[in-house]
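Marked as duplicate of an earlier ticket. Keeping the data here for the record.
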Amino acid sequence: MKYHFLDQYRDAESFIHRLDPRSKFLAMLALVSAIVLTPRDGWLAYGLFLVFTLTLLFLSRVPPFYMLKRSLAVLPFVFMVAVFLPFCSAGTEVRGANIGGWHIGVTREGLILAAGIFCKVWLAVLPVILVTATTNINDLLKGLEKLKMPAIMVMLMSFMYRYLFVISDEAERLSLARNSRSFGGGMRLHARTLGYVAGALFLRSYERGEQIYGAMLSRGFDGHGRSLNQLSMRLADVFYLATIMVVVLMIALSPLLLRNLNA
């Protein structure tokens, strides 16, 4: 079982690792919010956010290839939405063609909008990966609970993370059993077999969930997680959070300052 998925570099030693999970989460929230609120053509701000995030990555000592691999996983989902924007957005047409009596054109405003969405999503994912990679998941959930996040949401995230590996192993066993009994067949047969596997996985997950819930109740589960580590906000955490806030504010205001200088 791969019990390390999100926080596999949590045992590394760096300044970022020693910070309180609450300060890291609040700093991440500020950074992601600033990236999302950046104008779609704020290329200068995008570049500065990238440089700042890479600086934090260097301080955390998380391998860059790991960050790149994790961050690129979300781009196909963004592509399915952004690919239509250049054709649907009104504006100055850059390239067009008549196909079957229909005129299809790509606009400059649509290309800018699609590129801005790609930049925002990719840059916003990087701080999230950085926090989850450098923080013990139990400490992070405990920090979220201390920040007054609803207990039901914290528990759902805890169970989702904990039993994701159990369901993944169960799916691998079912897939191995299917492959060992498969002797060819067409697409229709494979699709039907895949449906059987999905149904069996759902039933086994539901049954195991009922068993786990009963075991938790018998052991006095009260809806709150437990962690051996005691969280405490130190001066370094306050300094880190304040620095992130100041830098994020300066980067967010950089397009306005540049515009005023050019004027």
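See parent ticket for discussion. The radius of gyration is 24 Å.
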